[in-house]
Amino acid sequence: MASDRAIPCELDQEKYDADDNVKIICLGDSAVGKSKLMERFLMDGFQPQQLSTYALTLYKHKATVDGRTVLVDFWDTAGQERFQSMHASYYHKAHACIMVFDVQRKVTYKNLSTWYTELREFRPEIPCIVVANKIDADIKMTQKSFNFARKFSLPLYFVSAADGTNVVKLFNDAIRLAVSYKHNTQDFMDEVLQELENFDLEQKDDDVPDQVQCGSLESLSPS
Amino acid sequence: MDPAVYVRMMCTAKKCGIRFQPPAIILIYENEMKGKSRQRIMPVRNFSKFSDCSRAAEQLKNNPRHKNYLEQVSLRQLEKLFRVLRGYLQGQSLAETMEQIQRETTIDPEEDLNKLDDKELAKRKSIMDELFEKNQKKKEDPNFVYDIEVEFPQDEHLQSCGWDTESADEF
After folding, report:
1. Were both Cys, which of A28, A93, B15, B108 would link to A32 (CB 3.0–4.6 Å)?
2. Minimal Cα distance from A36: which residue of B?
3. Pairwise CB contact (< 8 Å): B111 & A150
4. Domain boundaries, chain A
5. Which CATH class is domain A14-184?
6. How far is B61 from chain A (nearest CA, A)?
């Protein structure tokens, strides 16, 4: 699926490990309105960073979640979607995904499954929101059911980048999901690291037969 | 009094069309006397079946003699009128020309735009932008609201979008 087209080595993705940074990626076919949604959310505040070498646009945004400042990088595809596949680095360290289709074009809905398969190949667990865009063009589509979202138990948002319906809510919810995913996995990683450390200690403790060895594992019980 | 200043304040465009013989763009508008329609005939010169319609439209719209009258007429509409004229000059029937215009100015919902090159994709996007701009609520609009939330509940009794396949394995 994802091939080895130009690897963006100058893109520093280490920062996404930092506590206050999250990365949210946008997926979906050409012309479903991904960039227009970004622009509607960020309004005047948007300063997209074009990385044309990688067919990538970055939008930086500062958000506040539960009183804490979060630096959000939104990744937008800038034409790379034409390959119906994204480079692996696009998915790397992403904390949430916004997956868009156009309610006026069936093919963009059908292609969601390709996008979703690729997403799960790289990021099996991250939160993903399905977005039905352009409802201003055909409001009746909001009265229909879309099985794709139901099948994978994904939230479905009806939005319009043109008139603004649900755009702000979509992005704020995506940020919230990204932050909570990050914190939960971080807790999990901390637990794993803790377990490994304890494991090391146990190994050493083997030389001291009188020591009680099970105590350290207790700290791993679900919190 | 300078007529250009005069019409800028008063002219309300009502209808705009094309006459084939002799070729002219015709504007029906209202001036300061409400309810009284006036007609302005703008002759089309140096236009052949090989002419570029978007350039012709631009030239007319920027023509110092007409520009104030045409302020409310979109470039797109003028371009379309020139295309109708060009179709006539090429010997096409009106129906043929209209169908051609329709084809070039609407999106085929079945078309996979991922498969188009940059130029073709840009064309489709500009067609979509037309509707986008028509429906767009801009920040400058007096009733603009940044955060608009509308609930569309996805409950059980909704009708299917018709895009899902019947089989349970597929969506």
Report:
1. A28
2. B132
3. no
4. 14-184
5. alpha beta
6. 27
